[in-house]
Amino acid sequence: MNNIIQIRLCIFDYECPHDEISKLLDIKPFKVWTKGQPRGGITGAKPYEQNCWILDSGLDKHKSFEEHLEALLNKIKPNLDKFIPICNQYYTSLYCQIMFTANNEVSTPSAEITSEQLKILASLNVNIDNDFYRIP
Q: Among 113, 118, 49, 53, which Cα is nearest to 89's?
């Protein structure tokens, strides 16, 4: 089995409509969560505690961490001047999910972030949330 990677930029804790964030950033999100709605749209599920606007790398889940991060930043960079104030105003997280198996023909995935990428992420004042999972 191949490694599975997801990288997403998540903007939380805003009270305005999701569309307003999309207009300010001049890009459509991959997904949004609305405060009070049941998680996953499942009746009876615990409701979301806050609004969330999510931008995904858009790549296949088997691409490398580095490819996912570069693809996500390439979506952000054309409008970086719009992202900076929004991301500095609201809690923003770079969510990185890395799933790997110990007994496969594919090596354990790397997760390298270049100094240039770190500068962009720092300008956005993002928190980096790395979740690593070993899957059977």
A: 53
